[in-house]
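Per your request, structure below.
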């Protein structure tokens, strides 16, 4: 920003200087007070069409974020990726759609596999 305008006018700066990040490849932008903040099509920064870069795909990025947040081991990651691969090939399928469905399926399995005297409810947190 440069010095304020001469006395007698409003106390707005004379012009604004916008410096973009070097990787944006945008040149420095000089604008008057009146121009500043106005949308100029040649200076609008385009949205990144591949925000997941450097991952090969958005799916890879999402999978990586889930795996890291869940703290999956390498064996668990390999198992899940193998399952995803089989689903993609059509040799496996999943009918579960959420956590509630997963717990309902686990409860059904426990009730069908355990003797009546040994029934217990499986809880995961």
């Amino acid at each position: 920003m440069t010095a304020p305008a001469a006395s007698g006018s409003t106390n707005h700066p004379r012009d604004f200087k916008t410096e973009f990040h070097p990787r944006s490849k945008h040149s420095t932008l000089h604008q008057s007070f009146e121009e500043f903040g106005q949308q100029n099509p040649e200076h609008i920064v385009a949205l990144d069409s591949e925000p997941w870069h450097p991952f090969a795909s958005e799916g890879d990025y999402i999978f990586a974020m889930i795996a890291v947040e869940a703290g999956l081991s390498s064996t668990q990651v390999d198992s899940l990726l193998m399952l995803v691969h089989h689903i993609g090939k059509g040799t496996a399928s999943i009918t579960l759609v959420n956590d509630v469905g997963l717990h309902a399926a686990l409860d059904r399995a426990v009730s069908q596999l355990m003797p009546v005297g040994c029934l217990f409810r499986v809880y995961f947190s």
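The helical segments are 58-70, 74-89, 99-113.

Regards,
D.
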